[in-house]
Amino acid sequence: MTLDTRQTTLDSLNAQIVACRRCPRLVDWREQVAREKRRAYRDWNYWGKPVPGFGDLQARLVAVGLAPGAHGSNRTGRMFTGDASGEFLYAALYRAGFASQPDSQNRGDGLILKDSYITAVCRCVPPGNKPIPDEMRNCQPYMVREIEIIQPKLIVALGRIAFDALLRLFCLPPDSLPFSHGSIFSLPASSFIFQPSSLLCSFHPSRQNTQTGRLTAGMFDDVWVKARQLLDGTL
């Protein structure tokens, strides 16, 4: 697939994602959050729609998160943009050379991802940050298509929910691979990815994990160092 064809195909997919209304509970919640807003963002015009993936069309690495944050991506319209999880993630990506700047506040802030692409299991903010199984299944075809277009060499699962979703994606039995921070696994061949690929695990950079010390900056940096080594063939 040429770069122009990849761009056109991804643009078409993103239009489908943004227009999606498959999950009534999520549609109601994302739009309620966008109407009511948080006081700190009362002057913002919230995105309030499903959030498409974002990044380098020629990326060798795809990172998979859980879902948009209520006042982060659901407000800004870009993955991991405008909240604490994104601040932690983009700072680490910048240190590892996968991002052009260490922070991300809005879609027009000039951030460019390098050799990396970010997506999520669920494209709409879920109540309580907990999508239900049917909602994740409804979103699964979007992630399959993104991976098919990007053809990454490495997929990074940000959290257990993303990890489990990727097992389903690759038709692996639940708990067939043990989730642990920093673990690396080989992924089987599939109908949507045409080259050998690997799966790298990380705790999600949620405030709950980073503020309790379950995930430190050093631990997160180690993940992206491993990612770089895997891509470069030195690990």
Poorly predicted runs of 5 or more residues: none
Q: Which CATH C-level class is it?
A: Alpha Beta
Count the domains.
1
Q: How much of the polypeptide forms β-strand, as a percent range?
A: 5-15%
For the largest beta-sheet, the strand count, sense and barrel status come to: 6 strands, mixed
Mass-distribution shape: globular
Q: How many strand elements?
A: 6
**Named CATH architecture:** 3-Layer(aba) Sandwich
Taken in chain order, the helices and strands follow as HHEEHHEHEHEEHH
Number of continuous helical runs? 8
Within the largest sheet, what's the order of strands?
Answer: 1-3-2-4-6-5
Rg = 17 Å
CATH homologous superfamily title: Uracil-DNA glycosylase-like domain
Helix content: 40-55%
Q: Return the CATH topology.
A: Uracil-DNA Glycosylase, subunit E
Structural class: alpha/beta
Q: How far apart are the termini?
A: 28 Å
Overview of the molecule:
This protein has eight helices and six strands, in the order H-H-E-E-H-H-E-H-E-H-E-E-H-H. The protein is 40% helix and 11% strand. It has a six-stranded mixed sheet, with helices on both faces. The chain has a single domain, classed as Uracil-DNA glycosylase-like domain (Uracil-DNA Glycosylase, subunit E, 3-Layer(aba) Sandwich). The two termini are 28 Å apart. The mean pLDDT is 96. The radius of gyration is 17 Å and the shape is globular. The protein is an alpha/beta fold and 235 residues long. Helix 1 runs antiparallel to helix 5.
